[in-house]
Design goal:
This protein has seven helices and no strands. It is mainly α.
Amino acid sequence: MSLAAAPHGFLSPNGVEIAFLLVGLVTLGAALVTVTTRQLVHAALWLVVALGGLAVEYLLLTAEFIAWVQVLIYVGSIVVLLLFGLMLTKAPIGRSPDADSGNRWAALTVAGAAAAALVWVVVDAFRTTWIDLSGAAAGSTKVTGQSLFQNWVLPFEALSVLLLAALVGAIVLSRKAKADAATPADGQVPGSRSGQADKEGVR
């Protein structure tokens, strides 16, 4: 058997596979910092690094369309929406004790179980599947678009409505906070009828 016909294995990685592993480690580190930092703005910025790392992973897997969708929608829209939500709700810029609920061990257990289940499902489903990383792009824009807007159009639209509801909720919370700050301690709004009646009674 010649060297060219030898089966591919994990013990003989090429340059693209090594780059895939290194970018994966950077993405994993950015994701861990995102969920462990107590500064909300820093968490949003580290989320940009994590989502950008996923886009690079898609590029290395010859899925250029998914990579650019990742950049345009997630990095360019979701993170901007998150930052707008932080600004509208007047979230603290520095360290926030409210960002730590004290349930780290429970969260770590659930995250570890979910990650193990996801890895087991993916490995079991694609155990014998190999992608020719040195060849042409496997996923074309036409095939991906047809799959997205024919088979997954309902979840896609539901996610859009969910993001819109989150933005509207942030605006409502911001306006409510302003109204509470403008109301005096005795509950009487300056210039109201009850306040004027009290003044006339005193007279």
